[in-house]
Amino acid sequence: MQAAPIRIGTRGSPLALAQARDVARRLRQAHGLGEDATELVIIKTSGDRITDRPLSEAGGKGLFTKEIEEALLAGEIDLAVHSMKDVPTLLPENLVISTVLTREDPRDAFISVKFGALAELPEGATVGTSSLRRQAQVLHRRPDLKVVGFRGNVETRLKKLDDGVAEATFLACAGLNRLGLTQHIKEPIPADVMLPAVAQGAVGIEIRTDDRKTALRVAPLNDETTALCVAAERAFLLRLDGSCRTPIAGLAELDGSTLRLRGEILTPDGHQCHAGERTGGAEDGPRMGEELAGELLAKAGPDFFRETA
C-alpha cells in the first residue's frame, strides 16, 4: 500500500506557494520520493483576510501563522512552511521550528518605475510601504519623503507602483528572487543603510514536538549557518518583545566561527533611532541577542516602546 503523502501547510500567496513547493521538492530529493509523496494544503490566514487596514493595527505578528498552526496541532497537516520574519518569537505549546532552509538575500530592494536608487528620489517624493520598520528607516534617513500605506502581495504592490499610487516602494530581495522577479530590483539596499527585518530571507519548517517521523524527514533540509543567525536575531527580538507595532531591525552574519549581530530600534516617525552590534562565537548568538537588546533598551529608556505602540 502506498504511503500517505506528506501534507505541507502553507498560505496561498504566490511567494508562500513558491516556498512550500521548494520545501516539497527538497523533501522528495532528500529521500528519493516521487511527485505524489508530498501534498500542499493551502490555508487562509487572518493576515490574508485583513486587507482594509495595516497589520500593525490588527494584531501584528502571528496573523500569517495562527490558522496554519491550528491545523498542525489538529493533525490536519504534517508540517508548516513559514517566512521566518512572520513567525512570533513565542510558539504555541507542542510546536517547534525544527528546520531552517538556507537563507536567501536578506536585504531590502528599492523598487521604482522612475528612479534607480533611494538617493535619486526627489524631495517630497511618495514612498509606499506597509512595514513600520521600513517607514521608520526611510523617514530617519530621508525625513523629506512622504510615506503611504501599501498592503498586498508582491504582484499587487508592483501594480500599485505602475498605477502611480507611489513613486517607490521596498520589497525583500529574497521574495523577488524566489518569484523570479529580480528585474524589478533597482537597488539592493545595503544593510548599513536599511537593516533588514529579523529573519528576513529565511524560511522555516514548523512541526509538532512529538512527531519524530516528520522531524527525521525534514532534518536534511536544515542549514546550520542560517539556523545560528536566525536564533541570534530572534533572541534579540524576544528580549525586545517586538511586534509589527514596533520598528525593529536585526541581522546576524556568520564569518567562519565569528558571528556578527547588528540591531536597531526606531520610533515610527524615524525621529529616534538606537543601533548597536555584538560579535562573538557561532554558538553565542542567543546570548548576544539578549545583550544587544538590553543595550538598546537602556539607550532608549523605559518608555520608548510604550510611546511607539
Task: Report a brief summary of the structure.
With 309 residues, this protein is an alpha/beta fold.
Strand order in the largest sheet: 2-1-3-10-4
Total count of strands: 13
Helical amount: 25-40%
Overall body shape:
globular
Supply the number of helical segments: 10
Instruction: Supply the CATH class of the largest domain.
Output: Alpha Beta
Q: Give the SSE string.
A: EHEHHEEEEHEHEHEEHHEEEHH
- CATH homologous superfamily name of the largest domain? Periplasmic binding protein-like II
Distance between the termini: 55 Å
Would you mind describing this structure in some detail?
The protein has 309 residues and is of the alpha/beta class. The chain folds into 3 domains: 122 residues, 3-Layer(aba) Sandwich (D-Maltodextrin-Binding Protein, domain 2), CATH 3.40.190; 82 residues, Periplasmic binding protein-like II (D-Maltodextrin-Binding Protein, domain 2, 3-Layer(aba) Sandwich); 86 residues, 2-Layer Sandwich (Double Stranded RNA Binding Domain), CATH 3.30.160.40. 32% of the residues lie in helices and 23% in strands. The chain has 10 helices and 13 strands. A 5-stranded mixed β-sheet has the order 2-1-3-10-4, sandwiched between helices. α8 runs parallel beside α9. It is globular, with a radius of gyration of 19 Å. The mean pLDDT is 92.
